[in-house]
């Protein structure tokens, strides 16, 4: 049994430390919000115990420090999530004198924001998204600043196109998520590629990401169901053992009862001392008491089996309800995204129809105002550097995007 729970513990620990491929290399910095969870294996109880005081969302401070209950103040700036998780576990083990190292899970719940400045409609701070590019950041900031009437349609086109690209990426993610939910609801093994994503370059990556989520969820559910099955088997074995003991106890009680019956008449005639009779009666009563205890223990074990069965049913029902709610929310988000895509497509069409300059902007040639970009980035050791960028340059958390209008397109 210990080996079984040991295996379950190792699998649970692996699930806690699984991160996306790029997360292990990401260096934390001020304003990053982290989701932290700590659990400890209780050998005596055979269960995991979560540390609620240190479980939750915490933000890296301006100096790069992370202040946690019990674990104290840690320097998170410039470190990865796995390094912080290891440091938290070691601090807790040392402070509380734990024999085993607790399992700490650290994930980035919210990246530090990016900043957009220069010739945009709404300069300022915006939340970071892992797939954020310069063009998407400019669209979040309202697109090109309205400097003069001649730039109106170009600004409108750029703004609409940027929002359109953001929504297309969001729609693709939602389509992949819906495909994963459909696969889980039918208990299939492989996610089928949605026909809407058939011609998308990064469609396979989206499906692979959702497949990783599905595997993690399936492993978690299987782990819980297997633990309940092991528990039911344990109690069933206990019931079998108790029933065998009851058979032996009944046989002994019957023998003593026969002996008591055979000497009862002799005791009445004074042929057998009363102490012998009393001893036999006491032994019979003890046997009956032990039988009642064994019967009570067997009943309690059966109740535990019924409870484990109900827990299995509750797990399955919760999973079904969660999938149904997820499918409903995903479909609603898809419908909303499609409506917005249609709106921005119409806006782009209007801009192209009403202004030749907007058409030139769309075709990437001809004359007209264009945007030039540069990025100011912290390299992780306190120093910053500025470099030129284009619309498709990927952004990192904390980046400052400078936007400037040039009079002519090169």
Q: What's a concise summary of this model?
A:
With 410 residues, the protein is α+β, with helices and mostly antiparallel strands.
Task: Give a description of the structure.
It is a single chain. This protein has 410 residues and is α+β, with helices and mostly antiparallel strands. The protein folds into 3 domains: 32-111, wza like fold; 115-145 and 366-406, Outer membrane lipoprotein wza domain like (Outer membrane lipoprotein wza fold like), CATH 3.10.560.10; 153-360, Helix Hairpins. 55% of the residues lie in helices and 16% in strands. It has 7 helices and 11 strands. The strands form 3 sheets. It has a 5-stranded mixed beta sheet, covered by helices on one side. Strands 1, 2, 3 and 6 form a 4-stranded antiparallel beta sheet that branches. The chain has a two-stranded antiparallel sheet with strand order 4-5. A hairpin with a 3-residue loop joins β4 (65-68) and β5. It is elongated.
List keywords for this structure.
410 residues; alpha+beta; wza like fold; Outer membrane lipoprotein wza fold like; Helix Hairpins; five-stranded mixed β-sheet; four-stranded antiparallel β-sheet; elongated; Poly_export_N; coiled coil; Soluble_ligand-bd; Poly_export
């Amino acid at each position: 049994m210990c080996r079984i729970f040991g295996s379950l513990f190792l699998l649970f620990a692996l699930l806690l430390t699984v991160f996306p491929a790029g997360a292990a290399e990401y260096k934390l910095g001020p304003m990053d919000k982290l989701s932290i969870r700590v659990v400890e294996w209780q050998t005596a109880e055979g269960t995991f115990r979560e540390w609620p005081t240190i479980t939750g969302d915490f933000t890296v401070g301006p100096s790069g420090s992370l202040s946690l209950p019990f674990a104290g103040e840690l320097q998170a700036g410039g470190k990865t999530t796995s390094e912080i998780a290891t440091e938290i576990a070691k601090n807790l083990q040392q402070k509380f004198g734990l024999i085993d190292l607790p399992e700490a899970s650290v994930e980035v719940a919210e990246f530090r924001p990016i900043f957009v400045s220069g010739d945009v409609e709404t300069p300022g701070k915006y939340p970071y998204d892992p797939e954020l590019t310069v063009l998407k950041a400019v669209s979040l900031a309202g697109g090109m600043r309205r400097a003069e009437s001649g730039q109106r349609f170009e600004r409108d086109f750029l703004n609409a196109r940027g929002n359109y690209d953001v929504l297309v990426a969001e729609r693709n993610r939602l389509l992949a998520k819906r495909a994963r939910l459909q696969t889980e609801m039918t208990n299939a093994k492989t996610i089928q590629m949605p026909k809407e994503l058939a011609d998308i370059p990064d469609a396979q990556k989206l499906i692979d990401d959702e497949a990783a989520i599905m595997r993690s969820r399936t492993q978690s559910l299987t782990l819980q169901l297997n633990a309940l099955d092991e528990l039911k088997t344990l109690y069933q074995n206990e019931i079998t053992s108790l029933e065998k003991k009851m058979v032996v106890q009944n046989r002994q009680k019957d023998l003593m009862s026969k002996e008591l019956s055979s000497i009862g008449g002799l005791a009445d005639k004074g042929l057998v001392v009363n102490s012998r009779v009393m001893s036999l009666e006491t032994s019979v009563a003890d046997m009956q008491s032990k039988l009642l205890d064994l019967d009570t223990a067997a009943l309690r074990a059966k109740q535990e089996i019924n409870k484990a069965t109900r827990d299995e049913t509750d797990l399955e029902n919760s999973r079904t309800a969660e999938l149904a709610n997820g499918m409903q929310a995903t479909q609603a988000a898809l419908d909303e995204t499609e409506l917005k895509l249609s709106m921005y497509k119409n806006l782009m069409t209007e801009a192209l129809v009403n202004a030749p300059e907007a058409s030139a902007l769309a075709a990437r040639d001809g004359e007209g105002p264009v945007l030039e970009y540069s990025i100011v980035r912290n390299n992780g050791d306190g120093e910053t550097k500025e470099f030129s960028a284009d619309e498709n340059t990927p952004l990192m958390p904390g980046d400052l995007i400078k936007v400037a209008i040039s009079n002519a397109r090169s």
